[in-house]
């Protein structure tokens, strides 16, 4: 990890100091993280294109291979489990084929699934059709869970709260976090830190969260475009105070990440050696922070580990998780 600031840094940001020491495996194994949010299935169909359809001017893909992966909140939970934490996942899935597939994949993972089934829900699935590494088409299925199921989810949350150390809200704007404000309030009352990966421009619903982890585009949508690091700090501070957030972690892709807390800014430069696949890096970041907080690691050190984990995960094709040995190698 490099400790220098971005070249345009104009705020008195503190750069992270020397690499942080390994956290004992047993401490991570004791961390109980509850991920709540929108789960989805990432489906890939790979095949060859040898002709154009006689029906319309589109390529015909002869599918040769299929692959399904857990996405959204399930990928976040998978990341926490890969590090060695006890990861629970509370979410809604439908009674359809993608829903069954998610149940199956979760069964094969180390994640403890707390699933609410909604017979009326189309489980969120993103189908990509690819040929020669090229994505030809993406097909999405999704709708919102019903009121009844969301209420059941909130009730389930209450019962799961005492059994977990850290709560993580993974919002992909699919409706699974309709009751997020109340969940945050209840978790705070129970003394548990709440981490939020936000979506959309209404952050009032995340009021009171401990840490929120937007990327640059997500933050820009809420505070507008900043002109300098100083301006960024001013905008973030106003937002943080008005929403009663303890901290905000801005993930900045190739520029690394910046943590804003009351009276302190800590910047960490990106740690990637080779970048293959950046999708899912945000999931790895928040899952790592949650795991470390659950293991009793201070926030600033947790961020350093998260940055290291993100640097590893962007260098991977396929499996977007980092395990204990890789992180502390
Ligand atoms: N191109 C890159 N080079 C180096 N590191 C990267 C790159 N992209 C991402 N990272 C690492 O991953 C972290 C999270 O990435 P980013 O800010 O893109 O999150 P994100 O947009 O939420 O990701 P996603 O939504 O695709 O999961 C960054 O803070 C950085 O540590
Ligand atoms: Mg993200």
UniProtKB/TrEMBL annotation:
Keywords: Kinase, Transferase. Residues 32-321 form the Carbohydrate kinase PfkB domain. InterPro entries: PfkB_dom, RfaE_dom_I, Ribokinase-like. The keyword Membrane does not apply. Its EC number is 2.7.1.167. It comes from the Bacteria. Pfam families: PfkB. This is RfaE bifunctional protein kinase chain/domain. It comes from Caballeronia udeis.
């Amino acid at each position: 990890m490099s400790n220098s600031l971005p070249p345009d840094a104009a705020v008195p940001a503190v750069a992270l100091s020397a690499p942080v020491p390994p956290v004992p495996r047993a401490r991570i194994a004791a961390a109980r993280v509850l991920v709540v949010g929108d789960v989805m299935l990432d489906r890939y169909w790979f095949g060859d294109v040898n002709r154009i359809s006689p029906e319309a001017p589109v390529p015909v893909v002869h599918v040769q291979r299929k692959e399904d992966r857990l996405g959204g909140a399930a990928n976040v939970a998978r990341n926490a489990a890969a590090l060695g934490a006890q990861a629970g996942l509370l979410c809604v899935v439908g009674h359809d084929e993608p829903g069954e597939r998610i149940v199956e994949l979760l069964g094969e993972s180390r994640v403890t699934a707390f699933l609410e089934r909604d017979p009326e829900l189309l489980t969120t699935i993103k189908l990509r059709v690819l040929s020669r590494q090229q994505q030809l088409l993406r097909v999405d299925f999704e709708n919102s869970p019903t009121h009844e199921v969301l209420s059941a989810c909130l009730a389930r949350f209450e019962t799961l709260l005492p059994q977990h150390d850290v709560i993580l809200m993974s919002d992909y704007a699919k409706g699974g976090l309709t009751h997020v404000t109340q969940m945050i309030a209840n978790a705070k009352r129970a003394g548990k830190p709440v981490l939020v990966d936000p979506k959309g421009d209404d952050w009032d619903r995340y009021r009171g969260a401990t840490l929120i982890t937007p990327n640059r585009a997500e933050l820009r949508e809420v505070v507008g475009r900043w002109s300098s690091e100083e301006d960024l700090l001013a905008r973030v501070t106003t937002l943080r105070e008005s929403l009663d957030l303890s901290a905000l972690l801005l993930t900045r892709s190739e520029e690394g990440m910046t943590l804003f807390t009351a009276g302190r800014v800590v910047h960490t430069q990106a740690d990637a050696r080779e970048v293959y696949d950046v999708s899912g890096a945000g999931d790895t970041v928040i899952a790592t922070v949650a795991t470390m907080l659950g293991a009793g690691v201070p926030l600033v050190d947790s961020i350093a580990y998260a940055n290291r984990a993100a640097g590893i995960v962007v260098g991977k094709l396929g499996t977007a998780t980092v395990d204990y040995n890789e992180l502390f190698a």
